[in-house]
Amino acid sequence: MRVEAHLVDSYVDSRDLALFAPELAAYDDQYYFNGSFNGYVNDFALDNFRLHFGQRSFVYGDFRLIGLPEFFETFIDARIEHSNLSARDLSQYVGQEHYQHISAVENMGYEGHFIGFPLDFVTNGVFRTPFGQVSSDINLKLPYKDTISSYSGRLQTTEFDLGGLLGDTLLYQRVSAQGMIQGYGFTTQTADFVLQAEVSSLGILGYDYQNITTDGRFTSRLFDGQLSINDPNLQVVTTGLIDTQTGKDSIRLHIELIKADLRELGFYDQRALISSTIKINLKGVELDTIEGYTDIVKTNALIGPNALYVDSVRMVSKSATTNVSSTFIPTCWSSTFLGILITLNWCSAPCA
Question: What is the residue extent of each domain of the chain?
């Protein structure tokens, strides 16, 4: 039977809706709405729809739903004009585990296009939070039964208060960035994603780093890719792998430090400039089990009025037996220290 209705200040309880969508029986909520209903129970449109639920949550827009009463198999095409979603209001719908991750946001607004299923959808629009806004064109798959959340698409944000979101405003400040992301997992333990991004500004320890680009895979214990910074006071390109996963524990990096102005970056109280090339190939994380080498070559340093050029430094760790040898120009010496063999060539003025 086809139904056409104009709803004005209507009210329904989640237990009543559970007759048509049994999944809603698990929730305790009341829904207040206005708008036009046109269609069948399993295929209908809501025009100029105004929905309020919980204490502070609402959604305004036009909706098309196909597939009820099987809620999680229902296709939704929604054009949302305005909304506000309270983390507390959503807690019973997302579960305690996911509520812990959204509670810091408190309230989130969204305007844009939502198309897909409740747990597998594409969203193209703008999310507004107390910390700033994020524009997205992303496919999101939320966890269901034994599956894990996954995502892919484009994100962009301007002057987003990263420190406020993470609860550490001393370490992190604001970030402006855009890029492509593909991966799965939302917690620090499960997140595993590939990120291609351009970060125009990132505040860390009170300094705004500019012009950062990255292309790599990230997890809580892995970085594999490239990271470059082209800031007026820091130019560096890093390529390689940091893998601290159990049984691997390896670091293979090539770092081209073109310029670092330590005073402008806030790490030193007088003029301090440095440039160098660093190659790291290590296995192990404990000092007495580390094997491999680190090469530091063509290092120029200017500290206050003093200049120093170091042609090369090699640190090699092979076993718990400690050997250190350093070769100077024109002198040399050797000793033992922490299982690391060090070779040093240097002179007291910058070399061409």
Answer: 1-130, 144-215, 221-352
